[in-house]
From TrEMBL:
Keywords: Chaperone, Copper, Copper transport, Ion transport, Metal-binding, Transport. Coiled coil: none annotated. Belongs to the ATX1 family. It comes from Remersonia thermophila. Residues 8-73 form the HMA domain. This is HMA domain-containing protein. The keyword Metal-binding applies. PANTHER family: COPPER TRANSPORT PROTEIN ATOX1 (PTHR46365:SF1). PROSITE patterns: HMA_1, HMA_2. The keyword Metal-binding applies.
Amino acid sequence: MADVQAAEHTYEFNVTMSCGGCSGAIERVLKKLEGVKSYEVSLEKQTATVVAEDSLAYETVLKTIAKTGKKVTAGKADGEERSVEVPAE
């Protein structure tokens, strides 16, 4: 029997954030990003966790967070370590 539920990804990023404005900036860009099902940004833990539709690539989310000017220090896609080097446009 085919799985009816669409595939999704969980992306986890360690992000250097110094204040509520920093985490707020990341929340604002994630809220607008197409394909994001849910997200949680924690200033306390210095993390951003994104649950995304299958069509939304890890690199797209990484680029979106990096555009806020915050430094992404580590990243995971579905539990696997991934590069945090932002791809060139």
